Amino acid sequence: MAVTKSRIAGNLSRIRDNIADARARSGRTDDVSIVAVTKTVGLDEIKLLLDAGMTELGENRVQQLQRRAEELNGYLQRKRNPLPIAPRWHMIGHLQRNKVKNVLPIVGVIHSLDSLRLAEEIQARAEGMGQIDVMLQVNCSKEPQKFGCAVGAAMHLGEMICTLENLHLIGLMTMTPITRDAEKSRPIFVRLRELFEEMCTERIGGDDLKELSMGMSQDYSVAVEEGATILRIGTALFE
Ligand SMILES: *Cc1c(COP(=O)(O)O)cnc(C)c1O
Question: Model pTM?
Answer without folding.
Answer: 0.97
